[in-house]
Input
Amino acid sequence: MDSPILRLIAQRVALGILLLFAVSVLIFVGTQILPGDVAQSILGNQATPQALANLREELGLNDPAYIRYFKWLGGILTGDLGTALTSGQDIATSLGGRLQNTLFLAFWAAVVSIPLAVSLGLIAVRYRNGPVDKAISGFALASTSLPEFFIGYLLVYFFAVKLQWFPGISTVYDGMPFLDRMKAIALPATALTLVVLAHMMRMTRAAILNVMQSAYIETAELKGLSAFDIIRKHAFPNAIAPIINVVMLNLAFLVVGVVVVEVIFVYPGMGQYLVDHVAKRDVPVVQAVGLIFAAVYISLNIIADIAAIVANPRLRHPK
Amino acid sequence: MADHETRPDGAAAALLDIRDLKIEATVYPPGEDPHDVTIVDGVSLMLEKGKVLGLIGESGAGKSTIGLSPMGYGRGGVRITGGQVLVNGRDILKVGTRGLRKLRGREVCYVAQSAAAAFNPAHKLMDQVVESALQHGVATRAEAEEKAVALFRKLSLPDPESIGSRYPHQVSGGQLQRVMTAMALCPEPDLIVFDEPTTALDVTTQIDVLAAIKDAIRDTGVAALYITHDLAVVAQVSDEIMVLRHGKTVESGKTEQIIHAPREDYTRQLVSVREIVHKEKEQSGAPVLSVNNVTASYSGDVDVLKNISVDIYPGQTLAVVGESGSGKSTLARAITGLLPPREGNVMFAGRALSPRLAERTKDDLRELQMIYQMADVAMNPRQTVGTIIGRPLEFYFGMRGAERDKRVAELLDKIEMGEGFLDRYPAELSGGQKQRVCIARALAARPNLIICDEVTSALDPLVANGILKLLLELQAQEEVAYLFITHDLATVRSIADSIAVMYRGEVVRYGPKSQVLKPPFDDYTDLLLSSVPEMEIGWLEKAIAGRKMESAGN
Output
């Protein structure tokens, strides 16, 4: 029973790793074509040509591109992401805490949004085309149509300024008590939830409705099952693959696409870190963050693929 | 009329009593306003405990719709708008959703035509079989599973102890159909609705499933509504038969009376539908098509065709028979060049055809046309009948304008459809008309050979009969040869001049019809011939007892 399914999974993982290497090349090339000179931006306009040349030599900027790529790649594979040009700090150390913060925020946004989206999708199917369905769809679409920065500021205005329930600036620090931390991320997590909710809900609804046309749904109806049992037991398991796919895409967004929300709430995560260093033309940091985002994105998609393979009884239990 | 049921007043002795049923649906025809149509009108029937009533009619007669009414279920927006449906004495049209849920899967169960589609692919068979019993609290899980295993055994399923732990895709079609019967029997219902349970099966598998269903009905004492379009099948299992047409009752009575002494014309047609007398033609001259020692495979390791040699003579029909998976359609693919054979060759009118489709000349293509089982997917839904038939005229003969239109009109005339159909789209035609248009399209190329792949299998018996008659007439007029692929031996008798019986990629019996159908038979041909249901009470038992080999589906 193991051979075809293991082969498929191994294939996906291998493809993912290959893709990650391709992305690393793209990121490297991309950052090389960016206009501007790192040495210049570190030393400022008043720097003497000699000082610039010395700094370039020191940073290894005079080596050919491919040598710098392999140096960089070798460093990453050994856990060394390099040093930030602007601050001279080790990127891996300063990134570690921020990655944790981003994952913390994404995790809680996911914990709220995924079950909520899937249950709303199920409810929408149960009362399809009725007022409940329309209300759910309307709310979800409205929340998606609003840009995330707008939702962010709305939340800040009502819950931080008017009601003063939550802080408007989500500062977190090491050793912060858990509940305080939760309180700090309440607003950004809500904003993220509202952004990803509709997409997942609509896809859940569509995937289940698609399955509801099947003959085995009629069989279930003719067994006397209630509408919810039919959706839960008979439709949902067969709609799981497309649902997992869209959930994973949104999870990826929660990690990778949080830049705007993090900036609005001044949350010390990856997104903010990236934006800061893009402004300072700190190429090693941009490369490292880009690669981490790509890795998150690719691995979540691999997980979605594998989950879809495992969810298929034909692959799990071959003849 | 002495034996005809008279309805007792008040006291409901009957298990199922349908009175003056009216069922409507809203249709949305293209280019017209949506409107209501009556699907079933004024049908009354009665069924006692432990009896089997057969509902028979062509598609659109409303038999499935009536069959689902004892469960208060309407498929795809179908509504029960009048009459009464009494199950165990209470009118189920008045019990509401909750009441219906208590009835479905408890008092009345359903066996669908395609068990393969009716089982949930995500769950094990056992979980699905015991589901209704658990849902309605009829038994505990352990009891229900024990009962299911007993039913699997009774329905002669292989490995009754462990088949429940398989998933639907791991079990063959004939076995799934029996598992579905077990699923219907598991909660010990009073009534089971069988909706064409054997129609999708091979003829050799059908007989096993039919026997299993019949035994199960007898041993459990459950009543049944048995829906089918095949009168010979229903005659084997039913006590009474009701003939339906256009949603109305044509006639109903005891099985024996319906098949031996039908009162209505329509029933008489159904009973005699299989009888086209076709005299075998002498084989003369050189064959138009010779398949010589063809061996072919899809992936490389398994040969789907093994050393096949057959000849077709001009103006004659070679019927290729066998069950699904025997390689019939693959043979057609090898001949048309869609699947180049690994060994052997195909000669057409004395010259060798290139094995690959891409290397054949336009004239090779023209000489060899095809008609398919599914007429509606073989036509472009956005082209009119005129365009569809006119296309080969333009492509092969360069006909344009009035010349082409004249020829299209001639062809429409040949297939007994008037010029009024020129501007119709395929969606506006009935199944039989669609197949006729496909025939006209094939004829338009003036071919020497037409490959007919199960062309009547998707059609109702009477319509199929019309198509066969048309094909025979056209053969007489146009001198065209047919390679006729079918699994239906009655069709073979009606149309063939010679027959090739295929089994697992090999031709096991081949020759003129009179010889192939003359005993002594090889075991497989015997199985195939003896599996064709005959319009005779007690045929099933005789056929099962007289078989020499097990069917492949078992």
Q: What stands out?
A: Residues 81 and 288 of chain A are 6 Å apart (CA to CA). Chain A touches chain B through 21 residues (CB under 8 Å).
